[in-house]
Design goal:
Blueprint (H helix, E strand, L loop, with lengths): L1 H16 L8 E5 L11 E7 L17 E7 L2 E7 L10 H4 L1 H8 L4 E10 L9 E8 L18 H13 L5 E7 L8 H9 L4 E3 L3 H9 L4 E10 L10 H10 L1 H14 L1
Parallel strand pairs: 1-4, 1-5, 5-9, 6-7, 7-8
Antiparallel strand pairs: 2-3, 3-4, 5-8, 6-9
Helix pairs in contact: 3-6
The structure holds hypoxanthine (HPA).
The site of hypoxanthine has 14 residues, from β5, β8 and β9.
């Protein structure tokens, strides 16, 4: 833990000098194509990752790579627009840096989001889903594999769903299977994941949820279905679908995250 704190200290110092709040109401991590949420932040203070000492860079299309602080509905928040994926070459302990920063800043809660492919044939492109469980085939995703942790996402998923219903948004709930990527899955893998109980598939979020559980930081995660997973529908998968679907649900996604900041 000391090593981790040593890595975080210069970053925390830098953010403090830039006027970032400590004890924010929420830290929000935006998934692929979901960076538009940052436009709803009032009096934003924005810092590109490239200016932050010791901060990794993002290399993914649709991830802008900046930290934005400000207020939403009068609450102080910090947003990571752009995240770090294991497939970019980051270790799991690197990918969970935003979670560790949120913990050090004494954020009250963490709101994660991601783009995902739907395995559940009852889902549609554009659906929002709150994650209530993880499937982790072939991977130990723990950033601190030696430390035991437990996660239980069911209670928070219930609350997210009822908060969404309160603003007239019907969202799905289900389990997220983590894959390393960056290539999409084969049809056979998707069939196998369906048998394993997964509703959506994606390349992020699971390590972050596990680290939040280890640190006792309340965390909720929302997936946006940007495509049906391989073999569920005809046609080739490509990244442009991610941006299209995100654009189509930008307003609802922003309303939902705002409501979660206030009520969760
Ligand atoms: N598979 C994995 N990750 C994804 C997908 C997918 O189909 N869509 C968006 N992220």
């Amino acid at each position: 833990m000391t090593v981790i704190s040593e890595q975080l200290t210069p970053i925390l110092q830098f953010l403090q000098n830039r006027g970032f709040p400590s004890e924010p109401e929420a830290v929000v991590i935006l998934g692929s194509g979901l960076g538009g949420f940052a436009e709803s932040i009032h009096e934003p203070v924005s810092v590109p990752y490239s200016e932050i000492p010791g901060f990794p860079q993002t290399t993914v299309q649709g991830h802008s790579g900046k930290l934005v602080a400000g207020t939403v509905a009068g609450r102080q928040i910090i947003t990571f627009s752009g995240r770090f994926h294991h497939y970019e070459g980051h270790s799991f302990s690197r990918t969970v840096l935003p979670v560790r920063l949120a913990h050090q800043l004494k954020a009250k809660k963490l709101i994660l989001s991601n783009a995902a492919g739907a395995i559940n044939t009852g889902f549609n492109v554009g659906d929002l889903m709150v994650i209530d469980d993880l499937v982790r085939p072939f991977h130990s995703l723990a950033a601190e594999p030696d430390q035991p942790y437990r996660y239980n996402l069911y209670p928070i998923a219930d609350r997210v769903r009822s908060i969404a219903a309160g603003i007239g948004l019907e969202i799905q709930r289900g389990s997220y299977v983590y894959v390393k990527g960056p290539n999409y899955e084969s049809k056979a893998e998707i069939r196998a994941f369906r048998v394993l109980g997964a509703d959506v598939v994606g390349m992020s979020t699971a390590p972050e949820l596990m680290e939040a559980a280890r640190l006792n930081l309340p965390a909720a995660a929302i997936s946006l279905v940007t495509n049906m997973a391989a073999g569920v529908q005809k046609g080739k998968l490509d990244h442009s679908e991610v941006e299209e679907a995100a654009e189509s649900r930008k307003v609802d996604f922003t309303r939902l995250v705002t409501e979660l900041i206030i009520k969760l």
